[in-house]
Amino acid sequence: MSTAQDVLKILQGCTRKTRGSEVAFSQLVAFTNKYLERYADENPELADLEENTENLLAARLIELEKQGRLAIRYEGSRIESIDFPEYYTSLIHAQYRKLHERPSLPFPSEETFEIVIPNSLIQPIDVKTDFVTWLGKQPGSGVRVLRLMFPEGLKTIIATTDLLPRVLVEASVHKIRGYLRSEKNVSYIKSKLSGVFRNREMVLAEMLGKILTTPDEAVRSVLQPSEFSFHFWTTLSSVLIKDLAGKKDKMQEDHDYAQTAYLLGYYNVYYKGILQRKRETEAALQTLDNRLRKPPYAFSITDIYNFTDSKGVLLTKRYSTDNINEYLAEQLRGDGQKQLAPLVRLKGPGNKEYYIRHEYVLQVLMEGLFQASRDFADHFIGSWSTDMKADRRPREMTDQGAFEAAVQERMEQRYPVLCALCRFDLIYLCATEQKIMGEAAAEVNRIIDREQRTMRPMHVVLNLDREKLAADAKLLLPFWQAIPWLHGIVRFLQRAFMGTKTPGYLERTSNSRRKRRGVGRRRSAARLSQSADGAAATEMQPTTMQLAASGDAAATSAARPKARSVDQAATRNVKAQEFKQRIEELQRAYVGEGGNVDAKLEELIERWNPLLDPVAKSNLVEDVNSLVRDFLRRMKVGFRLIPPDRARIQGFAEKLSQSEVFDQIRRKDALKTYLELYMLKILGKIS
């Protein structure tokens, strides 16, 4: 079966025969028939084209037009002609093939060709300003015809974009080779260059000999310049341009050598720039690699993009994100000889990714677990001790399941990298590859279950024992509070003689009262339900006062202003009740059902107030409270109009916590929660 490439080959032959880029469709059909008569036996895949020439030819031409290879002109729905611009590029390519075989020929110009190339197809390029830019352009879908224009009255050169990367370089080197075949020219160039390359005469002679004997190596010295070759070609180009371009009566050879000097000079600059950028990129990637080997060892992709050099300059100014992605992809693949690639990609909570070199996995994991274990122990012991001083027993302190869930949740929030590292396969492979022994091997065996091939629970990994932590928390209590019977007696005496009630006692009392009120309401509702039928059956009779009121119109009229006043008061009462209910709902969101606001505030004070001196501690609390009261005093009118929601309260607390007076307080989260709840307490007193 014929293809579009078969038709393209036929079209190329037709345009060569007609010596033009535009061919009538009827002319192409006739040429195709003759082509098939001659080559059909050698190409059996063209059989379908022979059977249905016009239709298949039209279909293949439309396909080539979609590829941008040609343009079709229609007359109605019928194909009239085909415009094939590649005809001109094929002529130019043929001329450069001749130049390769005979380097003494001049560079192709518009006068070289027997036909006229339309100006609309030619892209003019000023060699001094635009040539390097065109060298750096990525090859597009089509080949462009270029007119290279030189200064100093030099002739132009016709080329195509696909000839720039290699063919034009080779042609230029061959031109220089022809120039140096003259002993006079060689002596002249040596005399000019020897002053520049003092003490390097042997290297200079070797380079000149390379141009004469191995031109391919000379071409390579342009495309992949060394320090010497770069200076050599730059100096040689400058000498030739200065010597030839300024001549008034130039011969064809003068034009050729001057054009060559310009081209090689700019090729030299372009490829030197590429080499320089490549070296800078390699150096920057080496800096990136070194950075990955420094603490904290595990980095997100954002961290990697923000790496800087020793001067604080972003490395992305020396390489692109594509360079980073290619480097990471290469490091993640490895060399195939090891089970682990040099770089490991981890996925933590929230699907956030981290990158770490595999040799640092166990180090980061062990050090991180040790730090996290101490942090968690301090947290639970401190918070549980505070709760027990307030006669509370947190659920995670008494329930193993709640304790394990709290450990896992806190771990994901505070140590996402450690969570990402806690993978059985990763730890097992790292331990196997590094051949760890002794205490390190014992620690690995403690945190992974080799039989089940899984990680052990997080509280085991962190070496946290709930009962031991609870016992340590009790050690921080006063001695009388650690002994149950003595604790009960002291609390009873405090309530009886001093009126002191702990937050835990208040919460339990409140819960008990709420339960009793619930029982009372259910009983009252039952009694009302039983008496409802009898009350509904009793017909109400008008009283003497009602009759008198109904007949006294004057009194009613006089009472209207008073009634409006009563209605307004009732409306205010309703709004006040709604406001109070809203505040109570917000308070419950902080303290829970049956919780006590004052008790919760005392608990929060213990968290954010670091002072040990009771007087100083009390003064700091009062300063904070005064600031909140002053702030709310200015906002009360607005609150009466619109009851606050939780987001609004949190916004006010955030604003207050940023005040300079709170700079000494480090535990900002506990402080902000305290400010929010204290605001609600004050607002609950607004009438």
Provide tags for this entry.
33 helices; 10 strands; 66% helix; three-stranded antiparallel β-sheet; mainly alpha; 687 residues; Arc Repressor Mutant, subunit A
Tell me the Rg in angstroms.
46 Å
What percentage of amino acids are in beta strands?
Answer: 5-15%
Contiguous helical run count: 33
Amount of helix: 55-70%
- Average pLDDT confidence is 84
General form: elongated
Terminus-to-terminus distance: 94 Å
What's the count of strands? 10
Helix/strand/pairing class, anyone? mainly alpha
Strand order of the largest sheet: 1-3-2
Tell me about the biggest sheet?
A: 3 strands, antiparallel
Total count of domains: 4
Low-confidence stretches: 524-559
Describe this structure in words.
- 66% of the residues lie in helices and 6% in strands.
- The chain has 687 residues and is mainly alpha-helical.
- It has 4 domains: 4-84, Orthogonal Bundle (Arc Repressor Mutant, subunit A), CATH 1.10.10; 94-276, no CATH class; 293-490, no CATH class; 576-687, no CATH class.
- The chain has a 3-stranded antiparallel β-sheet. It has a 3-stranded mixed β-sheet with strand order 4-5-6.
- The chain starts with a helix and ends with a helix.
SSE diagram, text form:
Elements: H1 4-18, E1 22-24, H2 25-39, H3 47-51, H4 53-66, E2 71-75, E3 78-83, H5 86-101, E4 122-126, H6 127-135, E5 145-149, E6 157-160, H7 167-180, H8 183-194, H9 201-213, H10 215-223, H11 227-245, H12 252-292, H13 301-305, H14 321-333, E7 343-347, E8 353-357, H15 361-389, H16 395-398, H17 400-414, H18 416-421, H19 424-434, H20 438-447, E9 448-449, E10 454-455, H21 458-461, H22 466-475, H23 479-482, H24 484-498, H25 503-537, H26 544-551, H27 553-558, H28 560-591, H29 597-608, H30 614-633, H31 636-641, H32 646-657, H33 668-683
Parallel strand pairs: 4-5
Antiparallel strand pairs: 1-3, 2-3, 5-6, 7-8, 9-10
Helix pairs in contact: 1-4, 6-12, 7-10, 7-12, 8-9, 9-10, 11-12, 15-22, 25-29, 28-33, 29-33, 30-33, 32-33
